[in-house]
Amino acid sequence: MKKREQWSSNFGFLMAAAGSAVGLGNMWKFPYMVGMNGGSIFIIIYILLMVLLGTPILMSEMSIGRNTGLNAIDACDKIKKGWGFVGGLGTAGAFVILSYYGIIGGWVLKYLVKYITSSSIGNPEEYFRDFSSSSLEPIVWMFLFMALCVIIVIRGISGGIEKISKIFLPLLTLFIIIIAANAFFLPNASEGLKFFTVPNFSAVNSVKDLFSVILNAMGQVFFSLSLGMGTLITYGSYLSKDSNIQKNAFYIPLFDLIIALLSCTAILPAVFAFGLKPQAGPGLIFQTLPYVFGHMKYGRMIAIIFFMLILFAAITSAISLIEVIASFLIDNRKWSRKKACIIPGICYFLVGSAASLSFGILNNVKIFGNSIFDFLVNLSDKIIMPAGGLFICILTGYIWKPQNMFAEMSSGGKFKVYFQKTISFLIRYLSPVMIIIIFISSFIK
Ligand code: PHE
Predict the structure, then answer these.
(1) How far are the Cα atoms of 66, 191, 275, 277, 411 from residue 187, in angstroms, in the given order?
(2) How confident is the model over 97-144, as pLDDT tens digits?
(3) Whole-angstrom distance, CA of residue 69 vs CA of residue 5
(4) pTM passes above 0.90
(5) What are phi and psi of 85, to 5 degrees?
(6) In 3D, which of 348, 349, 320, 293 has the Cα closest to residue 168?
(7) CATH T-level fold of 10-441
(8) How close is the Cα of 22 to the center of ligand 1, in Å?
(9) Which of 221, 224, 235, 385 to mutate to test the pocket of ligand 1 (most atoms within 8 A of CB)?
């Protein structure tokens, strides 16, 4: 039997897993979520949930992957016959996310090229509206973005995913530090900084508000740490027994959080400096920021660095999703790596094209009252991700049992596993109960 590929080092794995975590979620979603959910209150709740909910699931996924050495579906099935559907749910979720992630990846690529070739964007709102609602152009950019990601994954684990992550992640960190540092010199910068550092209790003046903030924070933790989608099972399956899972489960969220906070530092002061509002939602980086860049000293250069940074972040996340699907087809269906990347690639390109058109000619096509794009986003964020997380907790907490997970984490006694009682409690009780409450409440308006 052919030996399963492995990461060339733990550092390589860490860069790839952190690369999966750090993505559009940190740079595009986190700042506007903070903007819409009461600033620092959201951040405090987010950090709490990241520790209590995120890290235990992260450890479970990595342990299931390394223990079985298989793709998400077969890994769950090996842990307990008949439970492959948990991985199946994640794999389906990876497909859904890819279909809309590619659209935004394409927009980012377009904006990067635009700033490289011309000095500014006339009226950013109009520009964004015209571009995103046109039929062909966004699809072409999406194709380019997806093709780039597929090519990287075709090159394999250590030769493709790991290599790219080891270059992109340090560069991305450098870029975001440059932009965040630049933000300090803007007029009114302190307003923006205050917005997400000083708690603003007026944003949560009812229990309902607080609940909605918690709900949004939980969704963001799942999305940002790439949980419930089989990514960490898949990446964990290429991990050597010499790696310390608990240490990795500490560094990945920490790094993810630092980048998310740096994104806020980079974006929010700039928004305030020009008297704009951070509650702009998804359009924040495509409509609000180009306005800011247009009025900033060296704005064009900052814009180029900014969109390059987002592009790198989006690529390292998209490739982790592609690998979830590819690894199943390679292990289970014995497809070649090339075929396992290209054929699903064509499928999510087609679904993505329909979603892209939902900003224009297909905007009156509704699925359960949502546009195609919003439907895909809601399906993955509100249903598949929490369900995937819940089943992972049940699988590890009650079927595989935390003791077996700790045995895997210790690599045969090599590493000490800390906080075992607390982690068991979180996986068996706190996380599932929280996910269920929040899951149900998301359907009650
Ligand atoms: N974590 C990624 C981000 O923040 C998105 C993602 C979700 C990637 C799930 C893989 C799996 O953008």
Answers:
(1) 50, 9, 10, 15, 53
(2) 999 999 999 999 999 999 999 877 888 889 999 999 999 999 999 999
(3) 10
(4) yes
(5) -60, -25
(6) 320
(7) Hydantoin permease (1.10.4160)
(8) 7
(9) 224
